[in-house]
Specification:
Blueprint: E1 16-18, E2 24-26, H1 30-68, H2 73-98
Antiparallel strand pairs: 1-2
Helix pairs in contact: 1-2
Length: about 100
Amino acid sequence: MTEPATTPAPPRSGQQLLLPDNVRFDIKSEENAGEALHRRWRETSLFVVALGLFTLTFLVTGWFAFLAADTDADTRKAALGIFITLAGALIGFLGGRASK
């Protein structure tokens, strides 16, 4: 007969865990892991909001420059180019952050 498979006990806080590819890391308590995750989420959220507001300011400025440009076609093209570039950068950045 074959012996029944036994499952190892889960590692305790501070215990070393040996992974299949021989990488070691410390198991921290759930409370510390939760606090670290919450801190990372808060820092990332604040960064995204700050970057979004900064970019939105430039988008609005570029759009009003585009609208306010009189008959000078070069100024209008430059303002539209800035607007499109910043809009694409904002969409790309937020899309990249959301896909992680």
